[in-house]
Design goal:
By secondary structure, the chain is mainly alpha-helical. The chain has one domain: Non-ribosomal Peptide Synthetase Peptidyl Carrier Protein, Chain A (Orthogonal Bundle). About 55% of the residues lie in helices and about 0% in strands. The longest helix has 15 residues. The relative contact order is 0.20.
Length: about 80
């Protein structure tokens, strides 16, 4: 799942692959601002056929948080 999410981050948000680690913080380490976060959510929803609510989006702090929510929504 991490590899699939890496692809979304690289292609949609243009994050450098070497920066993407489970513990990487979206805002501080990957420079994802609120607009990029919305773009990320939309791309994840499309790629994984899930729905991420705004309240859930603001709780995503790390790459692992993104992996966890996608896995939970896909289950």
């Amino acid at each position: 799942m991490l590899d699939q999410i890496k692809e979304v981050l690289i292609n949609a948000i243009h994050v450098e692959e070497e920066k993407i680690k489970p513990e990487a913080k979206l805002r501080e380490d990957l420079d994802i601002d609120s607009l990029s976060a919305v773009e990320l959510a939309l791309e994840l929803e499309t790629s994984f056929d899930i729905r991420i609510e705004d309240e859930e989006l603001v709780k995503l702090i790390t790459v692992q948080d993104v992996v966890d929510i996608v896995e939970r929504k896909k289950a």
